[in-house]
Amino acid sequence: MLNWLFKIIFKASGWKLVNTPKNLNKGLFAVAPHARTADFLIGLGTRAAMGINISYLGKAELFRPPFGWIFRGLGGTPVYRSKSTNFVQQVAATFNAHEKLLVAIAPEGTRKNVSKLKTGFYYMAHAANVPIIMSGFDYPRKSIIFAEPFMPTGNFEADMKQYFIPFFKSIHGFQKDWIKNYEMGKF
């Protein structure tokens, strides 16, 4: 929709991309830390600067009137949280129904400080057999840093220790100690 504008703002504000993934048809971008509303705008700038179509998942409340049309127009899909809905399987089925699909999601599930990660992002990627691309907002360096895509094994804790924690330990988010709880094994 307004990619040209987001790209200009992203570049003008000094942000840059590091290790941008290439030639991905499918994948789930795990974007963290998600601590501020501004992260959403930086994410839109990142997507525009990458020049690829990445949709995102957001809480359903964002998609209600009067502003819901804006979030949909920016590529968002609402997440309806209910005990009767298996959202992981819905996302996996959506991935399986498309030849190309890239989706971004915040593993914390909120902008608030959390004591543990949500696991849905991981199990969505595992069920859909798509790679996870960890993406970090490094504020001091004004860089969006991408890890190499990895295929989840189904062992959440082991994969978090092998891939997630080492990568995000090097990312300095807006809140500097955001990953310390995860280092202590609180998944």
UniProtKB/TrEMBL annotation:
<keyword id="KW-0808">Transferase</keyword>
<keyword id="KW-0012">Acyltransferase</keyword>
<comment type="pathway">
    <text>Lipid metabolism.</text>
</comment>
<feature type="domain" description="Phospholipid/glycerol acyltransferase">
    <location>
        <begin position="28"/>
        <end position="137"/>
    </location>
</feature>
<dbReference type="Pfam" id="PF01553">
    <property type="entry name" value="Acyltransferase"/>
</dbReference>
<dbReference type="GO" id="GO:0016746">
    <property type="term" value="F:acyltransferase activity"/>
</dbReference>
<dbReference type="InterPro" id="IPR002123">
    <property type="entry name" value="Plipid/glycerol_acylTrfase"/>
</dbReference>
<protein>
    <submittedName>
        <fullName>Phospholipid/glycerol acyltransferase</fullName>
    </submittedName>
</protein>
